[in-house]
Amino acid sequence: MIARTRNRPVKARARKRSAFTLIETAMAVIIIGVGIVAMVDAQRAFMVSNAWSSQAATASFLANEIREYTRRLPRHDLVTGLSLNGSTLVGWGPEPGETTYLDYDDIDDFDGVVFGSEGGDFPGPINAFGEVIAAVDLAGNPRTNDDTGEVIPMAGWSQEVLVEKVHPFNLSQVVSPNATEPPSGTFAGRGVGDYPLRVTVIVRYRAPNEVEANEVTRMTWIVP
């Protein structure tokens, strides 16, 4: 009798891998690196955005303080007024004897004035009471000079005030400080001091690592 054997397929054993291949390791490193870079960029963008929001809020506050400080003042000096002596304008800007902003008693006195600890005409920035706004320490307490006891102003901030005469029927049209209108028909004319004023406050900030101050915001309003 002839014995028959059945051919059975032999299954190949799967090779057991004990570690990542070089390519897989390189891909993993690249993916992790890209993720870290993306996280760093996102965090940096968040910090920049947060810093800008904080600066914008501070700048708006400082501009409003100037507006509140000048709100009670008339356009021009109540004693001398604004007039023309020939072609010379009299009364625009500080009057004789007004040596500090605390002496200013009308809006046009503030034209071109800068409040700030760096290159300003007067110390600043100031608040609605005309007081210099102090820098604060980490505990939120105002910083003062140990020798004089005076407050140390907020570093890097400045408030610039611009005052312009505008046409009463077109507030976007700036006219010269000595502008007048002669009588015509039923129009009685317009004197040099009879124009509305447009006041603009420009708030700038110079960060510790920057050379020049950058404009953060500006606020404009009309004094009729």
Textual characterization of the structure:
The protein has one domain (42-223). It is built from one helix and seven strands. The chain has one helix at residues 22-70; strands spanning 83-85, 88-90, 114-116, 157-167, 170-175, 197-205, 214-223. Strands 3, 4, 5, 6 and 7 form a five-stranded antiparallel sheet that branches. The chain has a two-stranded antiparallel ribbon with strand order 1-2. A hairpin with a 2-residue loop joins β4 (157-167) and β5 (170-175). It starts with 21 loop residues before the first helix and ends with a strand.
Layout of helices and strands, plus pairs?
Layout: H1 22-70, E1 83-85, E2 88-90, E3 114-116, E4 157-167, E5 170-175, E6 197-205, E7 214-223
Antiparallel strand pairs: 1-2, 3-4, 4-5, 4-6, 6-7
Please sum up the structure shown.
The chain is of the alpha+beta class. It is built from 1 helix and 7 strands.
